[in-house]
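Q: Here's a chain of 346 amino acids. Please give me its 3D structure as C-alpha cells.
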Amino acid sequence: MVDAAPNDDDRAVEAALRPRNLDEVVGQERVREQLSLVLEAARTRGRAPDHVLLSGPPGLGKTTLAMIIAAELGSPLRVTSGPAITHAGDLAAILSGLNEGEVMFVDELHRMARPAEEMLYMAMEDFRVDVVIGKGPGATAIPLELPPFTLVGATTRAGLLPGPLRDRFGFTGHLEFYEPGELELIVRRSAGLLGVTLTDDGAAEIASRSRGTPRIANRLLRRVRDYAQVRADGVCDLESARRALDLYEVDRSGLDRLDRAVLDVLCRRFGGGPVGLSTLAVAVGEERETVEEVAEPFLVRLGLLARTPRGRVATPAAWEHLGLAPPRTAPGGASGVPTLFDPPTG
C-alpha cells in the first residue's frame, strides 16, 4: 500500500516540496485569503496574530500552513504534538522557553493530556501559567508571565476538542480535499522541483488517483518516477503512470489495498452490511482507528460506503466497483442505505 508511514527520506523530500509562502499554496482559496488577512492585520498593528486552529483530514497541508504562518511573520517556529505533551509540566517547559512573537505549533491537538489542556487555556487567553511547586497541602502555585505568542493547533478530529479550547482560537480554518485540477498543478510543481520529466496526461493520471490529497499525490509521483527510471525511458507519461500505480495497487479511483479490503469484506462476507466498525476492523486485520480515519472518509466521499446508526453499509456503487451484483435484499432497497422503516437485522 502506497499510503504507508513515510520514512526519513520521504519526510525530507516532502519538506523540500512544501510551499514557502501563501502565494505558492495551491487550492484552499478561502482559508488562504482569510489567513492572509489575519496575518497582514497583525503585521500592521505590530502585534502577534490571534491563535489559529487548522482542521481537516491528514495530508492537506496543516503543517505546511503552520510553517508559512511563522515565515510570513518572520518568527521562529516551535513544533510539538499533542501526544508528546503528557503532563502539564511538559507544556509549562515549552511555554516558558517561548520568546515574544514566536509561533508554537501543536499537531494532533486533540490528543493532548487533559491537565496540559487546562493549563493551555490560561496561557492562550492571559499569557500566563501557574506552575505548581511541591505536592499536597504544602504545594505552592507560582504565576509565570509569558510573552505574547501565537499558537497554531492542527487536528484531524476537531469534534474531539473541548468547547473552551476551540473558543480560544481567534481564527479557525477547515481544509477541504483538493480537486483533480488543483492536484495536477501540485504534481507539476513537485515534478519541476524533483527534476522529473512529466507529461500532461501523466500528471492527470497521478492526480486522479491521489484521493484529493497533496501528500499522496507527491508520494505517487515519486513512485511513478521510480518506475519510469527503472522500467521505461525515464519519462512519466500516461502509460508509465498507469503501470506504476497498478503495480502499487492504487486503482483508477484512488482506492488502495485497505480500501478494497474494507469493501470486499463488507460485500462478500457480510452481504453489504450493516456491520459494526470493530467487526469490520477485525475482519480486515487493521486497527479500528485505521479503518475509521484512513479508509472510511475517502470511501464515504466517493459514495461507496455509508455510516448509519446500525453500522457500515456498502452502497450499490461499492458492489459495482468490485464487479459484483448487489443482492435483492440489500439493506435500504435500491439506495443501499438503511432507513427507519427497514426491519432490524439483529
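Q: Can you summarize the key feature?
A: The two ends are 35 Å apart (CA to CA).
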